[in-house]
């Protein structure tokens, strides 16, 4: 679906109100429990959001990502040690020292908050975009912070660099190509949500909720003008619902792939039957960020992983739009 058709289909199906395109935002009852997930640059961003706001976030699912602050505010380091090179070796000691500094100055929440959180990490063995060594460093990092029993690691599946699903009709599982959603006979959405939230009801066969538009704050954050949220009928009617934030990967924002990431991962099907609102913030592509990646190397600010980071602040404000006023 091209971008103009995407906008048309969404606008036709919704009532428009600013700043949130929801029939009545006051009918939403979002409980104080947030989980996050993401693919690739979205995995880096999900970890950043998890750690920066660990008072509000209590779980993260990370697909094909690396450790928090892997790039250390340097694009050269990002390319050398945080992506597909076989000799990639993230410097966890240097990273930990910097995180200590942020924590001591109040720019990062206390990592002790993370101890009882749930984390799910998936790294395909056929992923050549982000090397297995980088994924192993992410696992090692979270093992420093969490109770080991709360971490699930899946690294024995022959997946390429994508979001794996159990739905046919997507890319082959050993291929990494747009829109980076693959048919792998593996329900990543169900697996990650079950680890984060506990036992779930079966997903809906086809979604019945609404995909709505949200106005995103610009303020130096390099986000697109519009983000999205999937709101099940039960949540729109006022039943208590949890919030899950899903961060797309590079080349996966709506202007690049239409509604593919917003509708095809399987997250919305579980949202329908488990009282879950799914927020899909969006990055804007630019001359210095042509693939529309989340900032995991410092293009928006040198404080990009702190709780003052422009994108982290913008997404936090976006999420707060969904809470009853």
Structure description:
The protein has 325 residues and is an alpha/beta fold.
Q: Could you provide a short overview of the structure?
A:
This protein is an alpha/beta fold and 325 residues long.
List the helices and strands in order: HEHEHHEHEEEEHEEHEHHHEH
Number of strands: 11
Classify the secondary structure makeup into a structural class: alpha/beta
Q: In angstroms, what separates the terminal alpha carbons?
A: 35 Å
- Portion of residues in helices? 25-40%
Per the principal axes of the C-alpha atoms, what is the gross shape? globular
Gyration radius from CA atoms, angstroms = 18 Å
β-strand percent reads 15-25%
What is the count of structural domains?
A: 1
For the largest sheet, list the strands in their spatial order. Answer: 4-3-2-1-10-11-9-8
- Sequence stretches where pLDDT stays below 50 over 5 or more residues: 1-24
Q: How many DSSP H or I helices?
A: 11
Average pLDDT, rounded to a whole number, is 91
Let me know the largest β-sheet.
Answer: 8 strands, mixed
């Amino acid at each position: 679906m091209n971008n103009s058709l995407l906008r048309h289909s969404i606008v036709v199906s919704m009532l428009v109100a600013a700043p949130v395109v929801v029939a009545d935002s006051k009918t939403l009852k979002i409980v104080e429990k947030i989980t996050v997930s993401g693919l690739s640059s979205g995995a880096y961003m999900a970890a950043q959001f998890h750690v920066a706001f660990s008072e509000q976030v209590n779980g993260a699912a990370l697909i094909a990502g690396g450790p928090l602050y892997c790039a250390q505010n340097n694009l050269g380091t990002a390319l050398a040690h945080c992506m597909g090179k076989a000799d990639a070796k993230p410097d966890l000691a240097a990273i930990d020292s910097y995180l200590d500094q942020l924590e001591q100055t109040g720019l990062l929440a206390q990592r002790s908050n993370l101890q009882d959180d749930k984390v799910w990490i998936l790294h395909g063995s056929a992923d050549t975009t982000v090397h297995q060594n980088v994924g192993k460093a992410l696992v090692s990092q979270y093992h420093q912070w969490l109770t080991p029993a709360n971490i699930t690691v899946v690294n024995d599946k022959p997946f390429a660099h994508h979001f794996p699903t159990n739905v046919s009709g997507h890319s082959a599982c050993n291929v990494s190509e747009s829109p980076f959603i693959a048919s792998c006979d593996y329900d990543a959405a169900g697996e990650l949500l079950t680890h984060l939230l506990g036992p779930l009801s079966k997903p809906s066969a086809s979604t019945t909720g609404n995909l709505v538009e949200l106005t995103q704050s610009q303020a130096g954050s390099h986000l697109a003008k519009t983000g999205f949220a999937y709101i099940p009928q039960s949540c729109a009617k006022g039943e208590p619902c949890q919030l899950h934030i899903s961060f797309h990967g590079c080349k996966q924002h709506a202007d690049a792939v239409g509604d593919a990431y917003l509708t095809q991962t399987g997250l919305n099907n579980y949202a329908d039957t488990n009282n879950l609102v799914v927020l899909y913030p969006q990055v804007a592509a630019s001359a210095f960020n042509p693939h529309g990646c989340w900032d995991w190397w410092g293009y928006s600010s040198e404080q990009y992983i702190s709780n003052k980071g422009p994108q982290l602040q913008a997404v936090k404000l976006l999420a707060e739009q969904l809470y009853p006023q």
